[in-house]
Design a protein that fits this description.
Length: 102
């Protein structure tokens, strides 16, 4: 059970850091981006190690935690961090504007 929770944790964190990587790239924050890439790699190593170790020993239930962690991590990152792209879109696409911005 410990391995399943570790896989879930590593996948959740990996996906949060992956979304943050896109955000930092978009915002041109180099220092945060470089530090974030260290964390992405650490989470990827942990996730791959525990999931593959279990699969090599015939334990395929880890796949469920791997995929679940991925989905949960993306959901957390997309709902709990600011989305600047949608804010920019809503800024240019206000109701009442007679011009259409492409």
């Amino acid at each position: 059970m410990k391995n399943y929770l570790l896989i879930l944790f590593f996948q959740i964190m990996f996906n949060i850091f992956k979304v943050l990587e896109i955000k930092y790239t978009y915002e041109n924050k180099l220092k945060a981006l470089l530090l974030n890439s260290v964390w992405i790699n650490l989470m990827a190593l942990g996730s791959a190690y525990y999931s593959l170790d279990g699969m090599f020993h015939g334990d395929y239930y880890g796949i469920i935690f791997y995929i679940s962690g991925s989905v949960i991590g993306k959901w957390i990152a997309m709902t709990h961090y600011e989305n600047y792209r949608s804010k920019m879109y809503s800024l240019f696409n206000k109701k009442g504007d007679e011009k259409e911005i492409l």
